[in-house]
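A quick aside before the break. I want you to see a complete sequence-to-structure record at least once, exactly as it would be stored in a machine-readable document. Don't worry about memorizing anything.
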Amino acid sequence: MGNHNVSYQPSISPPIDQISVEERCARFQSRSIKGETKVAGLKLALSMIDLTTLEGKDSEGKVKQLCYKAMHPHDAMPGIPTVAAVCVYPTMVRTARKALKGSNIKVAAVATAFPSGLAPLKVKLDDTKFAVEEGADEIDMVISRGRFLQGDFNLVFDEIAAVKEACGKAHLKVILETGELSTLDNVRKASDIAIFAGADFIKTSTGKIQPAATMPVTLVMLEAIRDYYYETGKMIGMKPAGGIATSKLALHYLVMVRETLGEAWMNPDWFRFGASKLANDILMQLAKDQTGVYQSLNYFSND
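That is the input. The structure line, written in tokens, reads:
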């Protein structure tokens, strides 16, 4: 996809009407999804998860365990899809790559001085190149929120474009850290900058800041993707991350994606959930559908 060769003009981002965004989100949450549609939706949501471990205490053993879970979400239930990716720090990419060998599960790595993004550009680019050399299929970068909030949009654009180039063939997910952007207008502006600078995906949050993903923020980002698609014919992916822990909420997000972007986005190539607890909640709901009773959450592995 590469740099889209269009510089970002702040005037292209439309103002956001917060009340109408919140009303639309309330409508998405009023849908009742039952029976076979619900089961299909839960399986789809599971297949879109990026299972994530991003702790300072991460070890090779923990990453291997997470990769095993990614490949075997719940062996007692046949026909359950695997997740989309495992997301780790760059130093753990090689371990994950080896553990996931033979599967279709992608290795995603956070880079660019995650989660703060406060490092010189050279450090961010070296971080990105290292992760790609270690075998990352996808890079999750963070934007410089401080510079964005100062109005230095060109610097933010140029950094994203430079990281995109450093990614080579790896896909680039650009994290806006919407909890620090404070307004939906800023979320829309940051989404447009990321898309025009070459993002393959835009992502709400690092998961380290509250609030993380919310439906209003995600809807504004989906609309930026939709408007860009109408203008250029290019699809951009979306990843809400952090705060989506229940299958019920995940299904509301899928309704929102389908109604805002359409059927083409309803697969892991174009939509992901960044979540650690969501997988177990989905497995619990699917087990109930098969057996008629809820299993204890302890019945599923925690990693």
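Two observations worth writing down. The longest strand covers residues 106-110. Residues 215-232 form the longest helix (18 residues). We'll return to this after the break.
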